[in-house]
Design brief:
Layout lengths: L1 E2 L6 E2 L3 E5 L12 E5 L1 H13 L9 E3 L6 E13 L3 E10 H25 L9
Protein name: F420H2 dehydrogenase subunit FpoO
Organism: Methanosarcina barkeri 3
Pfam families: FpoO
């Protein structure tokens, strides 16, 4: 079991997203991996699609994924709570991390489509 880096939900496998931490850029120039659950990935993708690239965010805070201070955008996450079921909270994510989430989202959905096509005998067969 591993935890989602946005909501903290424990799941068997997370979706890896590459982020670049400024403090670790010399040790990890290719970035580090953070894990997101599918719900948080979908929510972050929704935020990515809703932001206007030309308009600057008025929110200034620290990104929860990379730790960079600056302009961030609110991503709605569903945090599991034993007494209330689910608590909706907004966390701050920077533009660079949202770009990386978008790339991961596209790759993840493409793999889901290809995987279901192979399972049902449609499409082409790729090596596993």
């Amino acid at each position: 079991m591993t935890d989602c880096d946005l909501c903290g939900k424990a799941i068997p496998a997370v979706i890896p997203v590459r982020v670049f931490r400024s403090r670790l850029k010399f040790a990890y120039p290719e970035g580090i991996w953070k894990g997101l659950c599918e719900t948080c990935l979908d929510s972050a993708q929704k935020t990515y699609l809703s932001i206007n690239k030309d308009e600057l965010s008025c929110r200034r805070n620290k990104c929860v994924l990379c730790g960079k201070k600056g302009r961030v955008y609110p991503v709605e996450v569903q945090i599991p709570d034993f007494s209330k079921g689910v608590v909706i909270k907004k966390v701050n994510v920077c533009t660079k991390c949202l770009d990386s989430i978008n790339e991961t989202y596209i790759r993840f959905k493409r793999e889901q489509i290809m995987g279901s096509a192979c399972e049902h005998g449609h499409g082409y067969v790729h090596e596993h």
